[in-house]
Design brief:
Elements (H helix, E strand, L loop, with lengths): L3 H13 L9 H4 L4 H8 L5 H5 L1 H11 L4 H15 L5 H10 L2 H8 L4 H20 L6 H11 L18 H10 L9 H11 L6 H15 L3 H15 L9 H10 L4 H8 L3 H5 L2
Helix pairs in contact: 1-3, 3-14, 5-6, 5-11, 7-9, 10-11, 12-14, 13-14, 15-16
Length: 276
């Protein structure tokens, strides 16, 4: 188990690495340090949500389990540039006024599950407005909701109760509408596992771990999230032949390569390698 000082050291080591072409924020910042890009991006995390809350909602839903730079970013940029879509009411009117196939063309994805999630969230906006009558606009409405979410009982939440909406989506929404928190996605889990020896954490435990790391380092939880996402997407990529680092480690172990050598080559933790 790493000490707090060792955890802090590892975070800043990762932050000193530069963004690579597969890092999430590389298209925006280029090859600057991960820490610098994370500090720059964190304050602007709510920029789209404040200016165009409806497009922000689309972005969060489309981003789930997708390669953001390849299959989400281009469509969000197109919608932002080519339409005046701003409010939830506009988005509701659009989704009700055209066919499902036409909407698929609009947002660039043929995904029934994501389409259903979007409709279900929009159907709940009137309930949220009744709950938070002081909200002055759609961003403020979602900000109130985001601050009130009880993750330990998220299935009783007005949005968390929606089928297919998991904690990761709730957390992405909360971050996008003003909460200092973390999305427990694949990249964050990979970093916690490979660099900090936190194997097989639940989503709630991932959030707790990152919040603890935030306190240790003095960096916001959102900045830690961005460090992990950009490090994971930049340095834990599949090889040219399509093998993940984990699969390569398994093959090396089957060939009798010493665990210490595998650790040095893959940067996987001793615990992960031992359990392969």
């Amino acid at each position: 188990m790493l000490t707090d000082s060792e955890i802090k050291e590892k975070v800043f080591e990762m932050g000193d690495e530069v963004l690579t072409p597969t890092s999430h924020m590389f298209p925006e910042y280029g090859a600057i340090s991960i820490l610098e890009s994370s500090k720059r991006s964190a304050p602007g995390f709510t920029k789209l949500g404040k200016a165009r809350p409806a497009i922000q909602l689309i972005e969060v839903i489309l981003a789930a389990n997708r390669n953001y730079n390849k299959v989400v970013r281009p469509h969000i940029e197109r919608i932002t540039k080519e339409t005046d879509l701003t409010s939830f009411d506009q988005l509701s009117a659009k989704i009700q006024g055209i066919s499902k196939e036409e909407f698929y063309l609009f947002w660039g994805h043929r995904d029934q599950k994501k389409y259903t999630i979007l409709k279900e969230i929009l159907d709940r906006i009137p309930k949220l407005r009744k709950r938070y009558p002081v909200a002055v606009n759609d961003y403020d409405l979602m900000h109130h909701w985001a601050n009130d979410v009880d993750l330990n009982n998220y299935r009783r939440d007005i949005i968390g109760e929606i089928k297919f909406v998991a904690i990761a989506t709730i957390q992405h929404l909360r971050m996008s509408y003003g909460c200092d928190t973390v999305k427990p996605d694949q990249r964050v889990k990979e970093v916690l596992q490979r660099r900090f020896d936190y194997p097989n954490l639940s989503d709630l435990k991932v959030i707790e771990a990152v919040e603890h790391i935030s306190k240790i380092t003095g960096l916001s939880t959102l900045v830690i999230d961005q460090i992990f996402v950009n490090y994971g997407s930049g340095y834990f990529n599949i090889s040219e032949k399509g093998l993940s680092v984990m699969e390569i480690a398994k093959r090396l172990k089957r060939l009798g390569v010493a665990e210490e050598v595998i650790k040095e080559a893959t940067q996987l933790s001793k615990t992960v390698i031992h359990n392969l």
